[in-house]
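G.,

No rush on this.
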Amino acid sequence: MSNQAISNSIRTRIKVTGIVQGVGFRPYVYRHATELALQGSVLNNQQGVTIELQGPEGVVAQFIDILRTTPPPLARVDAIDITPLTFDPNDNQFTIIQSEGEGDAVVAVSADKSTCQDCLDDMQDTTNRHYQYPFTNCTNCGPRYTLIKALPYDRKHTSMSGFEMCADCAKSYQDPLDRRYHAQPVSCPACGPHVSFCKADGQVISEREDALEQTLQSLLEGKIIAIKGLGGFHLVCDATNESAVAELRSRKQRPAKPLAVMAADMSMAQKLVQGSEFEWQLLSSKERPITLMQKQDQPTIELAASVAPGIDKLGIFLPYTPLHHLLLTKLQRPIVATSANRSGEPIITEKRDIILHLGRVVDGILDHNRAIINGCDDSVVQSVRDEIQIMRMARGYAPLSLHTKEALPNKIIAVGAQQKNSIAFGFNNNLFLSPHIGDLFSIEAETYFDATLATFKRLYDFTPDVIVSDKHPDYAPTQWANNYHLQHQSCQWQQVQHHYAHVLSVMAVNQSTENVLGFSFDGTGLGDDGTLWGGEALLANTQGFERLCHLMPFKLIGGEQAIKDPRRLLLATLFERYSLEQVLGLPIPSIQHMPKLLVSNLHKLWSTGSGCTSTSSMGRLFDAVACALGLIEKTQFEGQAGMLIEGAANQLSPDECDALHFTLARANKVWDTAGLMAQIVDSISNQPLTQLRVNQIADAFMRCLGDAVCEFAQLHHQYKVVLTGGVFQNRFLSEYCLAKLESLNITVLPRQQIPINDGGIALGQLWFGIHQSKF
């Protein structure tokens, strides 16, 4: 370099944080630096990626601009910190150097991504060593979170550490211009993991290609096979075989909840479902989520009737691993692929647990020997007005990392809700939300909760200064927080009301601290008055909330029993308005089918309050209305009533909509639930309850709720609106509210990045804890 060139040159250190490990960031830096003839180095450390760069000042600025504007496809740059250094005249090349492991870990762990097209092409190339190899991957795709043990993200810190690379894989791994450069899971048939087929008792009977062929043959014969994927096992059967699907339901004791279906490709999916261009983009995105889409009116592939009975939607997804691609390409028919677990428990990640817990459910097991370090279920999403709504945040999207504008004053853990649990961590400028953990009603689920906590504490060497939980004393996360606080007295323990945390979760995603009007509609949650809430309008900020309005409370007759028996919920709402004799005379099929003595006894419980709990839950109101319409008498899975009501309303043609109009009146901060139920009863009484009438009442009911939301929002138009809680997963209700609020020029805070059900609660708790810590 000439003296003049040196005089115009600078040296600088660039620290990049965000999702920058395991995504091909270092080879990306190497390629651009060498193309621009810059000198220096790049390395991974626990803070992210550190680059030392020298060359002409204008060229260095050009490199930094490339870094900001066009990072690698799977990367996300949160911050770039630049420090001037002394020019080094002896540095005449650019190198990638060994990762460092010192310092506080802050790098965001990348989520697992579906197999990229380049790898699929390799798998079809008979001359390529990855031909039909079920574990093909590169820096642009494949496992990340599910195989990582520690940071920084290097092979020795993953479940691939026991697989020594062959010469060919090592060459790719060490070549900065190869797309498999430092792809930590890189392998091939000569050196990597392989599959094996086992009997239900675990006895291995075939391996490699023979194992795949045996799996295919078993599926064609109507067998149920447990197949190990990225983050756990699926229970799989032929989705077109009614006897196979019915047998799966019987063995898994899952009588009604819809089952997810995996299609071989987009062409097959289009024969099963229909949707907007945005929905097809969601389905085929690199995250490959289970996407809820409308069933085809006239499907050209006939699914088994018991896949999703009585529901107008289908949860569908595409192959996301090489193994799935190989199986589905050869099978050429859709498969049911449901999480391998016992009801309400976490997804199973090891063969021994399949044998122990599901040995009587499966006919065989397709296993492999790449260990799953961190279990991760499939994500579930839907489109709401052509925007993503995440219903279960897991594979592909999680862990979620958010970068905050201001550094956090403390290290904080939020332990989430009892159902659909996830946990959240906050420190420095980072917020992390874990993948979906599940419902914490079993020892296995609580063990998974503990394991997920341990994973994040291990990855980030994390000891909290503050713990935040729900207020319900019986929730497992609350009890964990209490126990931790007792053992670590210096750690603060804060508690947040459930529905307020729902609102805070959306505020967190938008980094909002000012007043919002939050509509928090769900099934349950302990209120500050000791009753169960769930139909709330809250004026909220990060310091607290005011309960502006709520549904008129009604009783859960028999307490928790009423949640499984919506007839009790229906009766409770009717007893608020009608006498026992009047209720017995109503032309409502579910009441007419009940013995009069049972109705009378339930009325006694209601009138005395014995064994009853008061609730203002919108979710329970949906249960009552679905029961009144004859759509349900026993709740078989969570959210069933909402699905059935939405499905009924969606059956109406445009000229059949708006045939009925209901009003949800409001007085003294209370929405009149009893008055709404009286209008529904009148509609049932005035005409025969035909399918058309059921559909029209369902339509009018949801529009009425949306009108009440929008009328109240208009009354408080100075505030931005938050729509949150599991009830707003009802696409009909959400889209109706969003469209009407838009027409009223009322701003609704976006909620695309997180679940608005209890899966997002931990992030709301975290947001509360952050802002309490500042005072």
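When you get to it, here's the other one too:
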Amino acid sequence: MRSRRFRARGLLAAVVVAGVASAAPWQERLVTLTEGVAFTFVQLPAGRFVMGSPDNETGRARDEGPQREVTLSQSFWLGKYEVTQAQWLAVMKANPATFQDYATSEAHPVEGVSWLDVQEFVARLNTRGLGRFRLPTEAEWEYAARAGSADRFPWGEDRNFGALAQHAWFYPRAEGRSHPVGGKQPNPWGLHDLFGGVWEWCADWYAPYPSGPAVDPQGPAEGTDRCIRGGSWFNEPEALRSANRHRHPPESRQTNLGLRLVWEPPAGGSGATFQRRSDGSVPYGYRAMPSASSGPWFVPVPGHVPVAAGEHPRLLFRRTELAALRAKAATPEGRAMLQRLRLLLSGGSGEGPPAHFIPATAAYPKEPLGPAPPGTFTVGHAAGYGLLYQLTGDSRFADWGRECFERALAGTRDRDPRYSFRRPGGALRAGPTLGWLAVGYDLCYDGWSVATRERFGRALAEYHEVPDEAAPRGPVTLESLARGTMPPYSNHFGMQVGGAALALLAVRGEPWTDHSRVEELLTAAAHGLIRNLDEGFGDGGFFAEGDGTGSMASQIVFLSALQAWRSAAGLDFFSAPRPNARLLTLKWIYQTVFREGRPEFWPVRGGYPQNVWSRTGMSGAAYFALGMGSLPPAERGALLWCYQRFLAAADARAGTPFDTASVYPQYAVSAFVSWPVGEPAVDPRLVLPHVYRDSVAGFFCWRDRWQDEDDTVVTLLTNPVRGYMGAPADRTLAVQSRGRRLSWGTVAEGPVREWAAAPRGESSTLTLADGTAFAVDFTGASGADLMLVTTGPAEGQTVRLGATPITLWFPTAASPPRASVAGNAIAVGLQQLTLLNGNLRLQVTTR
């Protein structure tokens, strides 16, 4: 019997595809072990619940009763995920897990650990000064699992286990092994994998339940077995119920038995792990700048009309928008973009099928392929022909789109042979391939026969391919792409879930689809979109693996999926209170100085630096073309200002107008659909603050203006970031100004103690982990365009406030202003500097 033996569970139902977000998760905290290895804990409120199951619950066992009221009198911090192999290894210097032979093994739950092993693990953790760690009690575990529900599962009775499949790995769906933590949806309190995954040790000895109410029960004082909860990948669904209990001797080790931790913060806060404030008061018109980690991830699109079954197009635009797009096609701007699209499609006028096909039959051919001129077949060709069909009504374009789809199904490879419908170069290439073919399906749909629509739609919905890899880890399916085969801190994740979202939205509602399956996978994909924004990127758009890998994770297909979610599902990520989605675009114009039509982005942090502004391919293309469809109107105007001022002339000379430098036609499609022809450009200084930060990565970017090659950009990364690649923390501020690249100051790694800024960001202060304070001033009140200030070692003028040395630097000034001390303040022109509890303060005077 598998029903009681080892299984697991979990995840926060963060998205309802119909358009309603469920309860937001509780407050979260990150506790760092080593570089790239950290625990995430969720704070759960104190509360009361009924523990155990009623006599009539399906699947109930006798030891789940009698039911009793349990009160947990204190809030507590519970691990958002099960403890992973990487976390165990960082503490114990050994990995006992069975499932180590996967590329994602570090993110799999550790298993093969006894209760006694766990006590040693906890004891070592508790010597690190990070607070106290322990196992949850059985009552705490069930309280967290139920998340306020009295049903079998926190989402209801779920008699057919359809919702459970979205939240848990269990038999037989788990395919006989563990999977990366967090790959399924969380429960309503933001906790992943409480159901399925691995069984989880609890602190209590196992015993029958006593009767009567209890407050903070700890279990019996002695026993022979310890409690385990949640079920595992090995178990059938009945074992994953909230009330199900099981037990094992404390020395037992099993391949589906692991743990989840409770964390008790150290007295007085969290040491060097989290954001701390100094004294609570931020004078002189400054405001404290908390992370932008609250509010919904998306907002409803006003007046959105749900997509009808069989209605196309739907992904990048709706039929009601077609008249405006046809009018755009008649403008000089529209004609220029479509001329470029036609060249990319056929190598000439676009009046014909692709002119060239690469000879590769493998994702990684051994022989060089030679040049691929314009008109070489790509996975975006069907989308390009589909747009021309929509604009002209000429059925020939739909037919050429059909030919491209046929070729893809027959195994013809993209100009980059890793992208292929058949035997792609891994799941990360399969996602964009499916996504852009889905856009082609959507745009050509009305020009195809019913039989063709069904055949191509089924090819998307029933996708199942073994990738062309040296060591394939099993087939790539729409299911695996929608959930992601890698964690969000891998650049693969956004490419997978983004492509899956486009494919699912394209076939949603078709009569031949399994509607419940499509809705289930859409929910999983929507959750994946949020995870990519939340766990892959931060609230400032900084990606866990760095800039170049982040470009892949956003540009290749992910931003287009968010745009499709807005168009087809009526949910807008870009207009939501959280800035994460918008910063995927805005970060490029904040951090880049443009010189004679060339973008200069410095420094490039993290993996694949060659991708940044590599405009001609997929990985670093269309920062403007995709961005125009990824911003609200005011910020879109700022993006348009930057393009017109810095790149438009160079692109026009190159024959790649309106950011169509990429050889991929899908980006020309995106440019045409989203380019705000006729809208005014807006000086970014009028709508964008002079500074933004990513509170997850500890990244800061300051910019004085968006005017010319003499613009000044200052950046700082205070925390190391890591996925499968990463970037170390900076040791200095990076200053790009007046054509120079400079390093300044001395920076200590770690979370910022205090961060505050003026309302428009024209001046700001921050205090680092070691107490070193900095200020950045663009007001001009000092007499210089830029003033940098620090209490640490640095180049520049040094004066003292009491015993504290203060160094000021004016990198843009030919004749730096002089600073003078007057009492407890430093005067520099009209700018006044003071110290408050070790934190710098700025105030413009009026003398």
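The chain has three domains: 28-264, 299-304+312-356+377-679, 691-844. The longest helix spans residues 515-536.

Enjoy the weekend,
O.
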